């Protein structure tokens, strides 16, 4: 699953507790509709904290581009903190994938806290590096991994990010996630993802329970990870 760093690909790590408390205390609560754009690419610093729902960072969001997700943001994650902490801009779009609740935080709240407490500043450095490692792991997977592996990695990383334990050899994805959305994450089109999932379902390697997908132990074990599974014991059926 991972090739370079310790962080999981595709799903950013949770915010350290001191920052989560800061954002919850200082932020203004706001409800966000599904599909709502929170921040445009190149826009000046804006800072959010996701209480509930689901959001994502998008790259190359334009009418003539297929949407590409850089990272998915689960509850407990900050959005815009990488640029807010240093006063820069980037061409990344922040969008709500589902109906969500966020805290809108003035960027000055973060910078003031970092200047006041050196220990907090060190923690922010570690947090920023971890997030960049996660983004790079996702980009690396999309660049060097074959399509089937990317789909499994996405499912496995999601289960790990949400601390999902297997049950009788099956890993139930904690989110309802469509083939189109998986494709946006792993840089594949909807048809390719749906075709691969259908192949695995016929082989009883993926199951559907209502709107949720379940992945088998066999699929998760077939993808290498430089820390936990450097040499898979079985090939990935694809």
In short:
This protein is of the alpha+beta class and 238 residues long. Helix content is 39%, strand content 21%.
What tags apply to this protein structure?
238 residues; Jelly Rolls; 39% helix; four-stranded antiparallel beta sheet; WH_DNA-bd_sf; Arc Repressor Mutant, subunit A; 2 domains
CATH superfamily heading of the largest domain: Jelly Rolls
**CATH topology call of the largest domain:** Jelly Rolls
Widest beta sheet: strand line-up: 1-8-3-6
- Element order, helices and strands? HEEEEEEHEEHHHEHHEEH
Structure annotation, total helices: 8
- Gross morphology is globular
Briefly, what CATH class of the largest domain? Mainly Beta
Q: What is the number of E strands?
A: 11
Query: CA-to-CA gap between the ends?
Result: 16 Å
How many separate domains?
Answer: 2
Q: What percentage of residues falls in helices of 4 or more residues?
A: 25-40%
Q: Briefly note the structural class of the backbone.
A: alpha+beta
**Poorly predicted ranges (pLDDT <50, ≥5 residues)?**
none
What is the strand content? 15-25%
Spatial extent as radius of gyration: 18 Å
User: What does the average pLDDT come to?
Assistant: 94
User: What kind of sheet is the major sheet?
Assistant: 4 strands, antiparallel
Query: What CATH architecture label of the largest domain applies?
Result: Sandwich
Domain Cyclic nucleotide-binding: 30-116
Pfam family, one: cNMP_binding
Protein name: Cyclic nucleotide-binding domain-containing protein
């Amino acid at each position: 699953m991972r090739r370079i760093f310790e962080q999981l690909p595709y799903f950013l790590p949770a915010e350290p507790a001191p920052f989560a408390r800061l954002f919850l205390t200082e932020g203004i609560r706001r409800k966000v509709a599904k599909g709502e754009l929170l921040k445009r690419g190149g826009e000046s610093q804006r800072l959010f904290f996701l209480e509930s729902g689901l959001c994502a960072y998008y790259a190359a969001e334009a009418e003539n581009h297929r949407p590409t997700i850089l990272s998915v943001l689960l509850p407990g994650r900050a959005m815009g903190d990488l640029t807010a902490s240093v006063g820069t801009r980037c061409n990344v779009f922040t969008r709500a994938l589902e109906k969500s609740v966020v805290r809108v935080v003035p960027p000055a709240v973060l910078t003031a806290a970092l200047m006041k407490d050196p220990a907090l500043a060190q923690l922010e450095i570690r947090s920023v590096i971890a997030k960049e490692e996660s983004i790079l792991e996702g980009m690396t997977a999309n660049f060097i991994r074959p399509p089937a592996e990317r789909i499994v990695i996405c499912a496995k990383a999601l289960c790990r990010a949400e601390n999902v334990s297997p049950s009788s050899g099956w890993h139930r994805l904690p989110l309802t996630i469509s083939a189109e959305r998986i494709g946006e994450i792993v840089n594949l089109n909807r048809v390719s993802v749906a075709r691969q999932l259908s192949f695995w379902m016929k082989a009883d390697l993926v199951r559907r329970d209502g709107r949720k997908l379940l992945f088998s132990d066999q699929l998760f074990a077939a993808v290498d990870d430089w820390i936990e599974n450097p040499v898979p014991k079985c090939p990935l059926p694809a």
